[in-house]
Specification:
The protein has about 120 residues and is mainly α. About 65% of the residues lie in helices and about 0% in strands. It has one domain.
């Protein structure tokens, strides 16, 4: 897995989906299940291009909120806890990348398990 790889961003996708629904609920905007599903799919696609810098998710969140007609004031509320949430996002992103690497290595037959290792005497 290359260093700085920013394509499998599971944590950012989950965070942005929850944050956008939070902003909608805080603003009192009712969203149908179809709208929420469309927002989730939009966020899944837009998180593929997030830069690996702090608070880059807020830019994506702002764009998504604007495109769905939700108030951008919600980003200011989220900004207060974004430092802590960024650490959690990074952890989930890292675990997701490690898990994806392990699954691919296992699929390709490159991952050696304990019973496959040869011990030399």
């Amino acid at each position: 897995l290359p260093t700085g790889y920013s394509f499998n961003l599971d944590g950012s996708t989950l965070y942005l989906a929850i944050a956008s629904v939070f902003v909608a609920q805080a603003a009192g905007v009712e969203m149908s299940f179809g709208q929420q599903l469309l927002m989730m799919l939009t966020l899944m696609l837009t998180t593929k291009g997030i830069a690996a810098v702090p608070r880059a998710s807020l830019v994506i969140l702002s764009g998504t909120l604007a495109s769905f007609g939700l108030p951008l004031e919600g980003v200011a509320i989220i900004l207060g806890v974004d430092e802590l949430m960024d650490m959690a996002r990074t952890t989930v992103n890292l675990v997701g990348n490690c898990l994806a690497s392990a699954v691919m290595a296992r699929w390709e037959g490159e991952l050696k398990t304990e019973d496959q290792t040869v011990t030399s005497l």
